[in-house]
Structure formats: C-alpha cells, structure tokens
Design goal:
Layout (H helix, E strand, L loop, with lengths): L18 E2 L13 H8 L2 E5 L5 E5 L2 H9 L3 E2 L27 H11 L11 H18 L5 E3 H6 L1 H12 L5 H12 L6 H24 L8 H10 L7 H15 L1 H15 L2 H9 L4 H11 L9 E3 L3 E3 L2 E3 L4 E4 L1 H4 L34 H18 L4 E2 L8 E2 L6 E2 L3 E3 L1
Parallel strand pairs: 1-2, 3-9
Antiparallel strand pairs: 2-3, 4-6, 5-13, 6-9, 7-8, 10-13, 11-12
Helix pairs in contact: 4-6, 4-15, 6-10, 7-8, 8-10, 9-10, 13-15
Length: 416
C-alpha cells in the first residue's frame, strides 16, 4: 500500500459527523453510486458502520488488492470483533479459513487447496450439469405456458446441491444450518450476541456431522469432509479435527447464499442485455471469459470486509492507527475506471480482467474455481436447453431479496 503524506484525519460531513457506509441503490446489486465519488475524492475515508463501529473505507482497485495482501492488516475473528473488554465476554469461536493466520493458515491451506484446484474439480462438472439439467427439466415440465421463476426453480436449489455433493453436507439437514449462515452474512449490522449464537450453532452442527462420519467407519467417502477427516487422523497430518470443523463452517458461510444471489444477479444481467446473451448462446466457447466479467460486474461479495491494522501507517494522506478497522470494498474496486475501461458496462468479452471478486493475496478464496465451475455449467445448460430465454416481466418491476448485504432479485420470471 502506497504511503503519501499525512493529514489531520477523516473529513466529517457538514454536521461534524462521520459519513455512514454508503447505502445501496434501489434494485441494483452493484456497488452504491457513492463509491464513484469516493474513488476520486476520498479513496481512504473513515465511515460509520451499521453496527456503530468506525472503519476506513478503501475503494480503489489498486488499494483494495494491496490491503488484502498487506501484512500490516489482519482479519479479526468474527466472534471477537469489535473487541470486548468486559470480564464475562464469551470465548471466541474457532477461526474460519479467512481468519486463520501464520503457520496455522499455511498448514491448513496446504491441506485444503489441492481439493479445490481446477483440475481436481473436473469430476464435479458432469455432476453439476446433471443437477442443472434436472432442475431445468422439472421447471419446464411443471409449466403449462412456457414460463417459470428461475430463482425458485434454479438459482436457489442448485448451489446447495453442489455444496452438499462436494463438501459432504446432508441435504436433509438444511433447516438446521442454513438459517445461521444467513445471520452471519449480515454480521456487520448485528449485535454480537446474535453473531455468536449463529457461529456457535454452526460450529456445533459441524462437530456433530463429523461425529456421525467418524461412526460410519473408515473415511473412504469421496466428499471433502471425509477426505479432510482422514487427513486429520493421519499421523503427521496437516489438519486437526477442529480444522475440519472450521472447514465445514467456512463452506457454509461462503458457499451457499453468496452463490445463490450471485447466480440470480448474473442471470438478470444477461437477461437485461439480450444481445450479449444471444452472442454467448451462439458462441459458447466464450462462456469462461463471460463468467469472469459477471464476477467483476455483479458483486459476489457486497458485504463489509473487516481488516484490522497491526501498526500505524499512512495511506493517501490518512493516518491509520494500530487497532483501526480497514474496510476494502471489493465491489467498488471492480468498478474502478483506472483498472477497467468503461467499468460500468457489461462486456462479456472483457480481457484481461483482474477483478477482486475472490479477494487477493494469502487469503484468496479457496473455493474460487468451484464458484466459477458452477456458474459456467449453469450458463451452458440454460443456453442449451432454453435458447430463447427472456424476462417475462420488466426488470424494474422485480421484487428484491434484501435479507443480506448481497442483495438479489427475489424472483426471476422468464419465458422460453
């Protein structure tokens, strides 16, 4: 992160109070328009978070990438931030993969990353295709007028089925774990008691799942929990049982609702750009490039990412103190005109495309290739099976799911 000079601190608004984190624009999954001004005028600015804490918003692409890789910044435990000084503060939960540091992070990532490489995940492509085809076929059969809702029929069930198949989560347990994942996606605006309750519940569920798998006998299953559990029991292995618990919690937090809402937003972007969608249908070899653009253009993560400064440093004239929260805004970085020509335009042929959808640096998202694969297969199946797909209602009239900061259409009525 470049250091340039020092100023007295953040500029308050006209009333002498800090600006709030920018509010979302109605019926738009992209970054709030306010970030365009911040990138130009205040690339580092102190803001008030929904939970009442303050943090330094970082909005430029170059600075966001640098922040994720900067050793002076660390991701705090979700269960221990903001820090509490009272003596009866509850013990923190196990760290998720994003929160692990040092040798612990290196050891766990060394064991888990090989399971998520592009080559290792090739076995999932035909399985994801079969799931997607089944969902589309069911929607078509149940429709008497060649119309349906892609959210209910496709974008909601597909990510959970993929997650369960890959990780080894029982689909029938979904009512036990899904509500807690939704709570944690809105953690930046919730009281610590709710966050801790959801984290403890997921941790308990993951531990119970591992108990069940241990009782089933040798870990010879092909799912990832079974494979990692076997590694944790191997003499000299890189993982502990707690690390496998953390893996389950991490996948539930990162692999479910984010993919549901991003897939719905990506399909809405295509449906509102019919010329580009037709071109993609006619030239399916461009789907992988299109997936990268959809990851850039439509935020995969519009929630607040919190890092904490380990030491004092200066960035763009602002003095950041040890202990301050630093908030790199991925969605803003992906619309930075200094990194992407005409950044607000959807261009499915855009290349190169150095987006930050999966973060950057040591904590680059482990499941990035699985997300790419899922979206790529979903697009291929839709374009093959429903080549004349189009919105059945005006985009501006669609209801929105705003239950988490990710935000997505609650319905996608289409005809084919």
């Amino acid at each position: 992160m470049d250091e340039t000079g020092t100023t007295a601190g953040p500029a308050p608004d006209a009333n002498g109070t800090l600006m709030p984190v920018p509010a979302f624009d109605p019926a738009d999954p992209g970054p709030p328009c306010a970030y365009a001004r911040l990138r130009t005028e205040q690339p580092v600015v102190k803001a008030l978070m929904p939970n009442g804490e303050t943090g330094w918003l970082i909005s430029r692409h170059e600075d966001v990438r640098a922040a994720f890789a900067d050793p002076r910044l660390t991701r705090p435990l979700l269960s221990a931030w903001p820090p509490r000084e009272d003596a009866d503060a509850p013990p923190p939960c196990l760290p998720t993969f994003l929160e692990m540091t040092g040798e612990h992070h290196t050891r766990v990532r060394r064991a888990v990353s090989p399971l998520f490489t592009r080559r290792r995940l090739e076995f999932m492509a035909p399985r994801i295709r079969a799931m997607a085809e089944e969902l589309i076929d069911t929607m078509v059969r149940s429709s008497g007028d060649r119309t349906g809702d892609l959210v209910a029929a496709f974008t909601e069930p597909l990510p959970l089925r993929v997650l369960c198949e890959t990780v080894g989560l029982p689909h029938e347990d979904r009512d036990l774990y899904l509500p807690h994942t939704l709570t944690l996606l809105s953690a930046a605006g919730l009281p610590m008691e709710e966050i801790l309750a959801a984290l403890y519940a997921l941790q308990d569920y993951a531990s119970g799942l591992i108990d069940r798998k241990e009782k089933e006998g040798p870990e010879d299953g092909g799912d990832y929990v079974s494979l990692l559990l076997a590694e944790s029991r191997r003499e000299g292995g890189d993982l502990t049982r707690d690390d496998v618990v953390s893996f389950v919690v991490t996948m539930l937090m990162a692999g479910y609702k984010t993919n549901i809402q991003h897939t719905a937003n990506a399909l809405l972007a295509l449906l509102t750009h019919p010329d580009q969608m037709r071109r993609l249908r006619d030239e399916p070899e461009g789907i992988d490039t299109a997936v990268e653009e959809l990851l850039r253009h439509v935020p995969l993560m519009n929630a607040i990412n919190v890092l904490v400064a380990l030491e004092d440093f200066t960035l763009h004239g602002q003095r950041i103190r040890a202990g301050d929260a630093v908030l790199p805004v991925i969605a803003s970085a992906n619309r930075d005109p200094d990194a992407f020509p005409d950044p607000d335009r959807l261009d499915l042929t855009r290349s190169p495309n150095a987006h930050t959808a999966f973060g950057y640096g040591p904590h680059y998202c482990t499941g990035a290739h699985l997300t790419r694969l899922q979206l790529s297969v979903a697009l291929r199946v839709l374009l093959e099976k429903l080549p004349d797909l189009e919105l059945a209602e005006p985009a501006e009239s669609l209801p929105w799911d705003e239950s988490t900061p990710l935000r997505a259409p609650a319905r996608l009525p289409v005809r084919w």
